[in-house]
Structure formats: structure tokens, C-alpha cells
Design a protein that fits this description.
The protein is of the alpha/beta class and 265 residues long. It is built from seven helices and eight strands, in the order ααββαβαβαββαββα. The protein has helices at residues 18-53, 60-75, 100-106, 125-131, 145-157, 219-228, 250-263; strands spanning 77-82, 90-94, 112-116, 135-137, 161-164, 192-201, 233-239, 243-244. Strands 1, 2, 3, 4, 5, 6, 7 and 8 form an eight-stranded mixed β-sheet that branches. Strand 3 (112-116), helix 4 and strand 4 (135-137) form a beta-alpha-beta unit.
């Protein structure tokens, strides 16, 4: 990740104290249980759904929505949503500042995430991502841009509502980095792209960047800090009006979406 946008050193998550570890156990156990049960149920439903509906997923995505809503409650992260997710196929494009973004967006409506290929190999997270139908792309593989764009176009053609982070990396939740037009190539097959702004508010007394996971931060310590928080936080989700694809090229589309997302941060 480029360091040019940094205002200072990355946030270092505090290590949990005695009360913090008690909260980690109190929240972590139910969270892992909910994720495991949700994964098992989703795989079972998908086994029946696949031969009947093929690539389309009429039922299983709603399991993901329910699981993520429960997970948000367990974590004590309140959601305030403005606007509504677009209906039908297309794409949601949002700013990216935390691993929590996945839970937040999945809790709003069924979506198919577009993620960097490395995530598929991450322990635990990779399994969850594959089970939810995530589309993996190699963002730095320029020779595969056309093929990857075709894959995204096909998923939209199958009725999917994609979700992706066009910044290409995560930030400290205090800025929006330029959207990469190349990531919009596969979205031109859909009717519209809907910008979404995610703005986190830290628990009282915590650093404003508390929920942000970026730079060289390790996932484990950050997840522990979130689980150990004595007070809950809040995330404001703003669904901006969808931008029609017709009459725009990918650079124009990326610029308009970026401006919309930035306006609510």
C-alpha cells in the first residue's frame, strides 16, 4: 500500500485487559458459533439450490444476511442506514477501511463480493468467502483484465448484485482514495452502479480510527480489540442514488461514484 496518504503512524490496537479478555470470550464464542452454523446451513441449502438454480442463488444469500446481522449485534456495532440498496442486478461500490465492511454490507442485502485473489487462501476467511460465492480477481494481473471483466459481466448477467471496493486497499476511515477505473470494466454490463459510503464512529473514549484495519496491521490483534471493546460503536451506511451506466465510460463512472462516496464521509 502507498504511504503517501498517511497523516502519521498506523493505529496500534490496544491489548485486552482482564475485562477485555472476558468480553472476548463472551462475544467470541457466540460469534464463532453463529458463523459456523451459518456456514453449515448455507452449504446444505446450496447443495440443493445448485442443481435447481445453477449459478443463481435465490435462497442461500439470505442466510448470509441473517448471519451478518446477528454478528453485528454480538459485536455491539450499531448500523444506521440512509437510503436503500438498489434492486436487481448491478454493483455496489464502497469505500474500504475495515474487515468489518464485509459484515456491514452483507447485513444490508444479498450481494456477491469481488475480492483480491489472496483472500481465497486465508485460513477461515477464505472458506467463508468461497462459500458465499465471492468472485476472486488478481488486481495486478494486467493481462487478465479482459477475462476478469468478462467474469464480472457474466455474474451480473446471471442476476447478481456485486459489491466491491474500488480504492483497491483499505484506509483509516478518514478519507477516500481514488477509485481505480480498471475495476469498473466488468460493471459496464449492468444497468447501474450504486455508490455506498461506510463511516464508522468509534466507541466513546477510543481513537477515531478504532474500527479501521489498514496498512500493516495484523488481523488478529485488531479483531481482539473490537471484541474487547467495553462500549459499542456505530457505522453509518449511506446508499447514494444509483448511477446509470448508459452514456458513461468506466473513467467517468469511477469518478462520479468516488465523488458520491466522498460526499458522505
Amino acid at each position: 500500500m502507498s504511504l503517501t496518504w498517511r497523516d502519521g503512524p498506523d493505529l496500534v490496537p490496544a491489548r485486552p485487559g482482564a475485562v477485555g479478555w472476558a468480553l472476548v470470550l463472551l462475544r467470541g464464542g457466540p460469534l464463532v458459533t453463529v458463523l459456523a452454523l451459518g456456514l453449515g446451513l448455507k452449504l446444505l441449502v446450496r447443495a440443493v439450490e445448485r442443481p435447481l438454480a445453477g449459478a443463481r442463488r435465490p435462497l442461500s444469500p439470505w442466510i448470509t444476511v441473517a448471519v451478518c446481522r446477528i454478528a453485528m449485534r454480538i459485536l455491539g456495532l450499531r448500523v444506521e442506514a440512509r437510503g436503500r440498496p438498489m434492486q436487481g442486478p448491478g454493483a455496489l461500490v464502497a469505500n474500504h477501511s475495515s474487515w468489518l465492511d464485509i459484515l456491514v454490507l452483507n447485513a444490508q442485502a444479498p450481494v456477491v463480493f469481488v475480492s483480491k485473489a489472496e483472500v481465497a487462501g486465508w485460513p477461515g476467511i477464505g472458506l467463508l468467502a468461497r462459500a458465499t460465492g465471492t468472485v476472486f480477481i488478481r488486481r495486478e494481473a494486467r493481462g487478465e483484465v479482459a477475462a476478469q471483466a468478462q467474469t464480472l459481466a457474466e455474474r451480473i448477467g446471471q442476476g447478481a448484485r456485486l459489491a466491491l471496493f474500488p480504492e483497491g486497499t483499505s484506509t483509516d476511515n478518514r478519507r477516500v482514495l481514488p477509485f481505480r477505473p480498471a475495476l469498473f470494466a466488468g460493471l459496464m454490463a449492468g444497468p447501474a452502479v450504486q455508490p455506498v459510503t461506510l463511516r464508522y464512529e468509534a466507541p466513546e473514549g477510543e481513537d477515531p480510527r478504532f474500527f479501521a484495519w489498514y496498512g500493516g496491521m495484523d488481523l488478529g490483534p485488531h479483531a481482539l480489540a473490537v471484541l474487547a471493546a467495553r462500549r459499542g460503536g456505530r457505522v453509518k451506511v449511506t446508499f447514494h442514488p444509483p448511477i446509470p451506466v448508459a452514456g458513461r465510460d468506466r473513467k467517468t463512472l469511477a469518478a462520479e461514484a468516488e465523488a458520491s462516496v466522498r460526499s458522505a464521509l
